[in-house]
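Budget justification note: compute hours in this period were largely spent on complex prediction jobs such as the one shown. Inputs:
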Amino acid sequence: QLLLQESGPGLVKPSETLSLTCSVSGGSISSSSYSWGWIRQPPEKGLEWIGNIYYSGSTYYTPSLKSRVTISVDTSKNRFSLKLISVTAADTAVYYCARHDREAVPTAAYYYYYFYMDVWGKGTTVTVSS
Amino acid sequence: DIQMTQSPSSVSASVGDRVIITCQASQNISSWLAWYQHKPGKAPKVLIFPASSLQSGVPSRFSGSGSGTDFSLTISSLQPEDFATYFCQQANSFPLTFGGGTKVEIK
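Corresponding output:
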């Protein structure tokens, strides 16, 4: 059974860097069939997708966070990480990591992929406060 | 970005009730929609993807329908373990986006 576990500081000061790690157990992160990503939920708000990464290092980030976010993967430790720089109180949220599965649909020239999250972690709360 | 509007935001229901949750996309997403269940302190669980395909192990009382911009999740006979928050997610294009969630509470 694949399990994902988020870890990292629960409190980060404004203007500093938020760093979280997602440890993957029960399966390998080095699969071309899946990507790995982060989602967050601020208090009393809906879910916001942050971005995802393949084991090869290929990434996609949501445009609103792209200038501040980096997702990386460490295949040797079977884990991936999130870094968010210059945080403010608006970055206070529960952060989830999740495996992204996909449906592949062929077109004339390539495959188009449609992503959903098939395995999630339980989430970790990060508060940005001085 | 594709906006997902989910309703209602909360619903009070009794065991055995039929519950319908709707999700509307701001543009055509074909059938590229997922539904999730989330209980406090637990990892969210995917129920349906794409729009009407039940994931393995999900009880048959859950069903999804719709295409284009309008979708629904139906719980045909609510069970005690179904009290949770449900949310939709469009998979049509990046960035992936979610509905605001529906909390199903005990009446």
